[in-house]
Amino acid sequence: MIRRLGWSDVPVATPAVPSGDLRLHRSLTSGLTRRADDPPAVFWGVGDRGPNVSPRVAARHYGLPQLAPLAALDGAKIMVAPGIGPALARFRLEADRVVLEAVAPLRAADGTPLTGLPAPEWPGAETEPVFSLDAAPLGACVDGADCEGIAPGPDGRFWVAEEFGPSLLLVDEAGVVHRRIVPRGSEGRFDGSAVPVSAELPAIAARRRLNRGFEALALDRKAGILYLAFQSPLAHPDRAAHVAGDLVRIWALDPHSLTLLAQYAYPLDPAEAFARDRLAGAVQQADVKISEMTVLPDGSLLVLERLTLSTHFYRVAPDAALPSHFLDPDHRPTLEQLGQTGCQAQGLTILAKQRIFSTDDHAEICGDLEGLLVLDDGRLLLSNDSDYGTEGAATQFWLAAPDRPLPTG
């Protein structure tokens, strides 16, 4: 059973561009979660840094050819409406539709808004160049965040994973960010932030590839474990390791102290395995990513792995932790250099995957899926990232029964 749910996007801005007004709407479903004490129909979402596109898209779709040369800059983005940043959202699931109950833009306790601008330059960390629609450099911001994952946190608050630091944010229902936790040694990158910053995460996290930082969060309430997944293989020790990499790190953390409990290696599918993308054109291994995960009642993880059009859902049991030396930035070969083949040769165990569902078998489901919840009856609630409508996409919610039954309880 596959069913698209009713939903209406919320307009937020109409920047003027030569090709006509660009109609932007709220994008609030980069990650989804539920808390144990929430009403049964209520769930929460988080939106990413704000409306942005590549220079090529801006040139082609918006009638702004003067922006095309900016594509030569690695990772360059056009911030279409810099005043719109990440936000927390409260939703309610009804029989055949999703209703938006509240939106809370993220901000510091003193009211300083979190922006969608990247973090400042820092040794060993990649930072993307960003520009306005008139090609003016926008620079960096110590209070910038690109939020992608969300999970219940202490005292009814939420942990939010973001890509720029990468970092974890402790956020309350009103959108107030109480803490920002960053990799050790990178705290100086956020000097002057309106949000209290502490460096408590392994330093190796700063080796994330540009725009591929922390992506997915999930809380195992029974075991007291917060799972955190990177989006892609680290660029460790260099960019080449990321490009060729086929293992993504998943961390198990104490949900209160954020002490690292274990590290796991999740094996990515080969790019050619994503049928809808393969049929649409050339595919690259570096584009395969994790976008979401959730904890099942038996303690296993359901992981959303995707390219663009195709999405695969895998169940994995976090039962094969890596040796601790893979957290040492100086250890060689790195996990990314070894890959699946190298780990097998060294007798290292990576997570075993069981496919639960694939949108390659259900062409009606849209691409760019980033939100995932498992409902009490075992059905999947899925959502896409509409990118604020910058390329004409709309937010979509889907209900889907997995091909394999999931554990309940």
TrEMBL record:
Sequence ranges assigned to domain Phytase-like in this UniProt record: 30-387
Name of this protein: Phytase-like protein with esterase activity
Top-level taxon: Bacteria
Pfam family, one: Phytase-like
Membrane-traversing stretches: none
Species this protein is from: Novosphingobium kunmingense
Database matches in InterPro entries: Phytase-like_dom
